[in-house]
Amino acid sequence: MFKLPELPYAPDALEPVISARTMGYHHGKHHAKYVDNLNDLLKAAGETPASLEEVVKAAAGDPAKKKLFNNAAQTYNHTFFWTCMTGAKMAPSGDLAAAIDRDFGGLAGLREAFVTESLNHFASGWGWLAAEGDKLVVLSTHDADDLLPREGLTPLLTCDVWEHAYYLDHQNDRKAFLEAWFDNLVNWEFAAAQYDAARGKGEAWRHPGPVAG
Ligand code: FE2
Predict the structure, then answer these.
(1) I want to staple 92 with a disulfide (CB 3.0 to 4.6 A). Which of 34, 97, 105, 107 is the partner?
(2) Ligand 1 centroid distance, CA of 38 (Å)
(3) Angle at Cα 115 formed by Cα 146 and Cα 121, nearest 5°?
(4) Could you tell me if 146 and 126 are in contact, meaning their C-beta atoms sit under 8 angstroms apart?
C-alpha cells in the first residue's frame, strides 16, 4: 500500500500564497483521499506494484483502468507538487538559469509562458515546466494526467490548477495564484536537480514506494 507522504514543511510555510487552511484540505483531505482510493483499487485488483510510477504508466490510456489511473496519477502529482515548492524564496541558478535565458529570454519570459499556459488551461489540471533533453518546455495536462506516460519529458515543476488548490485563498483569481506561486514558492534547487537528471546527471525524483500493510 501507499502512504500519504508527510509535507516537507509546516502547513503554514507557504503562507500567504497557500494558507494552512488550504493545506489542511488539500493535503489532508484531497491528497489523502486519492491515496485511500488508490490503495482500495489495488487491493481489489490483487495488485502489489513495485512503484507508483509503474501503476501510473501501466494504467495510462486504458479505459478499463481509468479510475486507477486517476487516483494513482493524482497521488503522484500532489506529492510532486508539495516537493517542488518551498517557503524559502529562491531564484534559479547555474545551468537551469542559463537554459531559462536561452529558451525563454529570462525568468520573466518563463513566468509569462508558465502563467499563460496554466491560466488558459480549461478547468482542472496541472501546469508544468519540463525538460526534453536539455530543452525547457511549458505545458499543461488535464485532470489527473501527468508527464509519466510521455517518454522523454522530465518534470521540473508543477502547479496544481484544480480550484481546490487556490479557491479558499484566491477565490476565482487563478492568475493571482499563479503569479504569486511562481514568484514566491518555487523550489529552484529541486527544479535544477530535475534538470540535471533530464540530462543524465543524477537520478530524477521518484515517488516514495509502497510499504507493507
Ligand atoms: Fe490538488
Answers:
(1) 97
(2) 15
(3) 50
(4) yes
Give the pLDDT score at 101: 98
Residues 61 and 132 in one domain: no
Query: From the CA of 83, how far away is ligand 1's center (Å)?
Result: 13
* 68-80 pLDDT tens trace: 999 999 999 999 9
Contact 18, 159 (CB under 8 A): no
- 39 and 123 together in one domain: no
**Distance between Cα 111 and ligand 1 center (Å):** 21
pLDDT of residue 3: 97
**Pairing between β-strand 125-132 and β-strand 153-160 as defined by DSSP bridges:** antiparallel
Are residue 136 and residue 79 in the same domain, yes or no? no
Answer whether 0.90 is exceeded by the pTM: yes
Beta-carbon contacts of residue 169 (< 8 Å; ≥ 6 apart): 16, 17, 18, 19, 22, 177
Q: Is residue 206 domain-resident?
A: no
Q: What are phi and psi of 156, to 5 degrees?
A: -105, -40
| 173 and 150 both lie in a single domain | yes
CA of 26 to the centre of ligand 1 (A): 6
Positions in the chain whose pLDDT score sits under 50: none
Do 122 and 33 share a domain, yes or no? no
Tell me how far the alpha carbon of residue 144 lies from the centroid of ligand 1, in angstroms. Answer: 9
Range of the domain at 143: 94-198
CATH number assigned to the domain comprising residue 163? 3.55.40.20
Would residue 105 count as lying in a domain?
Answer: yes
